[in-house]
Amino acid sequence: MTTYLEFEKPIAELESKISELRHLPNSGDVDIAEEVMRLQSKVDKLLRATYAKLTPWQRVQVARHAERPHAQRYIDRLVTDYMPLAGDRAFGEDAALVGGLGRLSGRSIVVLGQEKGDDTESRIKHNFGMMKPEGYRKAQRLMKLADRFRLPVVTFVDTSGAYPGIDAEARGQAEAVASSIDTCLAIGVPLVSVVIGEGGSGGALAIASADRVYMLENAIYSVITPEACSSILWRNTANAQDAAEAMKMTAGDLKKLEVIDEVIPEPMGGAHRGAEETIDLVGKVVSEALADLAQYDADTLRRRRQDKFLAMGKKGL
After folding, report:
1. What is the pLDDT of residue 288?
2. Is 248 exposed, middle or buried (0-12, 13-18, 19+ CB in 10 A)?
3. pLDDT tier, 142 (very low <50, low <70, confident <90, very high otherwise)
4. What is the pLDDT of residue 79?
């Protein structure tokens, strides 16, 4: 059953009518198939019109949609011979980060992804994609493993941010995030990142300081959530929409600011309406990026990657 967002109510009403018609028995008075086709045409037009002019706040809602495909689904569909790896070799396993070895389009890779979960049980298990220090140290371990064996790294970013709990701070959350960013910049193999949902603060940057950073069309990427920004600036969360507008957190804005490299289009109505189509397109884009980056040696990759992020600071971003 499709979950509809607030701004999708007119679409929900039409699709509800279509569902009702499909359950009606055929009669000579009304051509049900023709009526369904007519309503479906209206739905398609309304979807196209609605998603052509989404506000930043509406894109935030789409990026967080419960049915949007998450990292494990990308891995399951795109990565063959996948062997998951666990633990940070220091404290324990963090289920908020999934990752391991596998092949993408026949190319051996190390893949990492922040997993939010798809239902209550899995969301609790994966801590809603919010990694703790052991998660970032696990990411470092896997990236260093990739560097040692000359394997490219692919990361799927989807988190509201690093876990803010006291236990995480006690185990060195800030150091773990910073060291993970440093590892991204230090490895001498291609690193490609895709923001598939939310890209929140250092929690995202820790696995997205990459040679190529892509964003899905309705993904978001920012230093803070709109709600948190609103609570700081306006002392409430009621101005979250204003914050989303001002923060320039959408894929289109970030492409103009040269924070990301490219925007990957989503099917009409968002990735949650065409998950397999979205995942396959992401796989194609990532495969092409890895093929292009394969021409560079380790020193060139490091230098280009570091220069890329230093240049952002020089532009005052």
Report:
1. 97
2. middle
3. very high
4. 97
Q: Give the pTM.
A: 0.91
What is the distance, to the nearest Å, from the Cα of residue 96 to the centroid of all Cα atoms in its chain? 13
Give CA separation, 288 vs 107, 190, 212, in Å: 11, 12, 11
Q: Name the CATH superfamily housing domain 60-314.
A: 2-enoyl-CoA Hydratase; Chain A, domain 1 (3.90.226.10)
- What would the DSSP string read from start to end of 173-230? HHHHHHHHHHHHHH-SS-EEEEEEEEEEHHHHHTTT--SEEEEETT-EEESS-HHHHH
Amino acid at 26: N
Any idea where the domains of the chain sit in the sequence? 6-53, 60-314
Q: Could you tell me where the beta strands, DSSP code E, fall in 68-106?
A: 79-84, 97-104
Long-range contact pairs involving 306-312 (C-beta distance under 8 Å, separation at least 24): 306/185, 308/211, 309/185, 309/209, 312/258, 312/259
Report the C-alpha gap between 50 and 85 in whole angstroms.
Answer: 41
Token pair in block for residue 130: 């919010």
